[in-house]
Every structure is written in C-alpha cells, then in structure tokens.
Design a protein that fits this description.
Largest sheet of chain A: 6 strands, mixed
Number of helices of chain B: 0
Strand content of chain B: over 45%
Largest interface: A-B, 23 and 28 residues
Number of strands of chain A: 12
Structural class of chain B: mainly beta
Radius of gyration of chain B: 13 Å
Order of helices and strands of chain B: EEEEEEEEEEE
Distance between the termini of chain A: 41 Å
Oligomer: heterodimer
Number of helices of chain A: 0
Shape of chain B: globular
Strand content of chain A: over 45%
Shape of chain A: globular
Chain lengths: ~110, ~110
C-alpha cells in the first residue's frame, strides 16, 4: 500500500514570491508521482508527473517538481506565483504496475496581492 | 473533443435514498475510475472499470456499486445513503488500465440531508 503526506495544509504567499509545496510518500513498490491542481468548484487537472528519467519535471505554467528517491519526496515549486495560481494542489502516487491513484490531503495555495 | 463529462453536477438526497451518478469518458478511452472527495480531503479511489469489467475496488462498503456500458460510459450507484456519503464524486478516464495520463471530470456534488 502507498501513502502520501502533504506537509502543509495551507500556504499563503504574496504575488511574485516563490513557493514550495511539500509532498512525501511511502511505498513498498515502485511508484509514479503526480501533482494535480483543483480550482474552486472544478475537477482535478494534471499539473505534472514523474515517470522516469530526469528527476526534475516541469509544467507549462512555470511549476516544477523534483523526485528525490532517498528522501521519498516530490516537492512542487514555482519561482514567482500569480494570483491565478490560487487553488488546491494534490500530490498523488500510483504503483508502476497499478491503476489507482493515492492522493494526499491537499495543500491550499492562496496568493495575495 | 469533449472531456470527461459527469451528471448531474449537483444533487441533494435524503438519508436512506439511492443515487445514480453518470460519467462519459473521453472518446476512445476504455477505462473509467470513480473517486470520492470529502470536503477538505484528497480523493479516495472507489472503483475502476475497463472493458465493462471491474478491475479494482477501494475500501468502500457494498452500498457502493458501479458498472460500465458497451459505449464505455459508467454509472456509480450508492444505496442507503448516509450523511457521510456527502462528497464530490469524481470520474476519471484513461485509454487503458495502467495509463499514466488520467483525466478527471468536474465531478458530481452529492449532499445527503
């Protein structure tokens, strides 16, 4: 079984400041890692994923996450946030041979002007 | 192309009633999964269906059931509703069972009173 811990339930930041949303996972088998974003009253959108290869993965809107196997972490970062980045962010894992996603509890990112 | 579509978007039911939620996957996708997202928590896996067969079941009581139709659309049924069943029910689709690109619908908000 897998578990995901998102270390911060709420992260308030000012516009144009950098941000890091922390995610740790636990699994006895190999997993793939994901970050999803959920805007108010909407479903989940895939932000980025790590499957293999380079441990640093990037999204088209400036977010990046780094897979750290030794620390079992997959933290999400953005060097400069916008008001529009305000949303709930979910870290998730999936067994490489499986099909179900296991999500963390979520981190509410609020960007203030 | 249409994304994952779910209906209804919002509904209110009384304890003890039954509810049916519907999902149409992205065209060409044969795998449908259902997740429950209670307010303030991450989504929890309920079921996965592929080619009309159940391929995975999460830790939910037998009051929860689902099926997939020949056109790959799916229904989630919940009997004997409890207050604790109030949640956002998310449908996700993918090409096959172990795909790593999983698309979510906007969800169906169920309130049990």
């Amino acid at each position: 079984a897998q578990s995901v811990t998102q270390l911060d339930s709420q992260v308030p930041v000012f516009e144009e400041a950098p941000v890091e949303l922390r995610c740790n996972y636990s699994s006895s088998v190999s997993v793939y890692l994901f970050w999803y974003v959920q805007y108010p009253n909407q479903g989940l959108q895939l932000l980025l994923k790590y499957l293999s290869g380079s441990t640093l993965v990037k999204s088209i809107n400036g977010f990046e996450a780094e897979f750290n196997k030794s620390q079992t972490s997959f933290h999400l970062r953005k060097p400069s946030v916008h008001i529009s980045d305000t949303a709930e962010y979910f870290c998730a894992v999936k067994e490489t041979s499986g099909s179900r996603l296991t999500f963390g509890e979520g981190t509410q990112l609020t960007v203030n002007p | 192309d249409a994304g994952v579509t779910q209906s209804p978007t919002h509904l209110i039911k009384t304890r003890g009633q039954h509810v049916t939620l519907r999902c149409s996957p992205i065209s060409g996708h044969k795998s449908v999964s259902w997740y429950q997202q209670v307010l303030g928590q991450g989504p929890q896996f309920i079921f996965q269906y592929y080619e009309k067969e159940e391929r995975g079941r999460g830790n939910f009581p037998d009051r929860f059931s689902a099926r997939q139709f020949p056109n790959y659309s799916s229904e989630l049924n919940v009997n004997a509703l409890l207050l604790g069943d109030s949640a956002l029910y998310l449908c996700a689709s993918s090409l096959a069972t172990q795909e790593n690109t999983i698309y979510f619908g906007e969800g169906s908000w169920l309130t049990v009173v």
